[in-house]
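> example.struct
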């Protein structure tokens, strides 16, 4: 029984008020009832299952799909808000102030919790993740493991290296501590609720302890499927001549003076994925100009509008 499996692993220390936005996906059938059994007061938002998705697409990675939740949480005085994707294997979080937090920063809080029980443990995450995650894992005595984007890649890595926790920027969170090594958005939300209930401070304060760098969302440069892997292979070799590059999945370029930029081929769609992060927006813009300049050599690549 799924309810029993989660209830046996999560025990919030106090009752919290939680807004649940299922985006009319399948999570609406299960998550509100499970959170009530955990002891939460639940406010439902778009929890009626409807495959037409009349309110917004159930995708917590996209900021625009989180706006209704961001408005509702402070409106009803909730402690936090939770959003799920259509099949409930990804999660998004909004604090009591209505602020949305990226999934790699949610993983920071989950990693701190795991490391309190398993000092020195490895935490795996995808190549799009924030430097803040890497630094925080090390600061709390853990071992950061950067790996290829894609939930199948991360699950395999966790099995092979016996890693207890992982996550992706997309919102997949993977649990193997007394669990099955799979991505489970509902379990992830319950663990975030447990962390919030344990703290004497509001959830926003927990997130404020994580350095928030200037970062782009995931950017997409359209590129034909027949060309995208060749482009990345050539671009990676060119960038390696000028910069330090992590090449486990595309090219994560480590720019002098801090900051990084990623360009990789999507595994499933005809585009290249890009993301940039640095201490300031001006530095992000500089790094984008470098990568965009290299991509401009390929006339069939359509650079992002941003």
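> example.seq
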């Amino acid at each position: 029984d799924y309810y029993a499996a989660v209830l046996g692993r999560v025990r919030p220390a106090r009752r919290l008020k939680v807004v649940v936005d299922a985006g009319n996906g399948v999570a609406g059938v299960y998550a509100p009832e499970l959170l009530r059994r955990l002891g939460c007061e639940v406010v439902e938002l778009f929890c009626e299952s409807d495959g037409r998705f009349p309110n917004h697409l159930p995708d917590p990675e996209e900021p625009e799909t989180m706006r209704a939740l961001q408005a509702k949480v402070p409106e009803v005085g909730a402690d936090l808000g939770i959003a799920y994707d259509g099949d409930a294997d990804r999660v998004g979080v909004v604090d009591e102030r209505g602020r949305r937090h990226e999934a790699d920063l949610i993983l920071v809080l989950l990693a701190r919790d795991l490391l309190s029980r398993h000092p020195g443990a490895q935490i795996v995450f995808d190549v799009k993740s924030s430097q803040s995650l890497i630094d925080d894992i090390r600061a709390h005595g853990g071992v950061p493991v950067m790996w290829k984007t894609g939930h199948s890649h991360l699950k395999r890595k966790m099995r092979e290296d016996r890693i207890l926790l992982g996550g992706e920027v997309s919102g997949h969170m993977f649990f193997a501590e007394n669990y099955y090594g799979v991505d489970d958005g509902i379990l992830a939300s319950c663990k975030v609720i447990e962390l919030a209930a344990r703290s004497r401070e509001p959830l926003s304060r927990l997130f404020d302890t994580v350095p928030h760098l200037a970062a782009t969302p995931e950017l997409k440069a359209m590129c034909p499927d027949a060309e995208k892997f060749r482009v990345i292979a050539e671009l990676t070799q060119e960038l390696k001549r000028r910069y330090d590059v992590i090449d486990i999945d595309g090219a994560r370029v480590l720019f002098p003076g801090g900051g990084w930029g990623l360009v990789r081929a999507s595994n499933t769609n005809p585009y290249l994925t890009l993301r940039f992060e640095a201490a300031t927006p001006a530095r992000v813009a500089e790094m984008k100009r470098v990568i965009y300049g290299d991509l401009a050599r390929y006339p069939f690549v359509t650079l992002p509008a941003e």
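> remarks
The first helix runs from residue 2 to 7.
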